[in-house]
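Repro:
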Amino acid sequence: MLANYLPVLIYLAVATGLAILLMGLGTLFGKLGSRQPTDPEKLSAYECGFEAFEDARARFDVRYYLVAILFIVFDLEIAFLFPWAVSLGRIGTPGLVAMGIFLFILVVGFAYEWKKGALEWD
């Protein structure tokens, strides 16, 4: 029974060891080269292309979130397409039809979002 899980345990041990090693090296090199930058631009906060806000509850345009959701949808589509492409020989025509329906639904959603103007940044 342990022989079945041994590769997974080895993988987890190597990944944990590598993570600890890289974090330790980052901390060590960060302390060795820690000079305070003299340029005020390097000290300023920067995130998502926006200047820092004074109020954390500032409103964003809803189109920003629609584009983010669109990215997630198409990212998930790719995550479903890889295993489908690998197993297409075994699942045959029903799998091809199911993926066609799945992609059609995604294209309809994309066309709807495009028609509503969610991708326009006026």
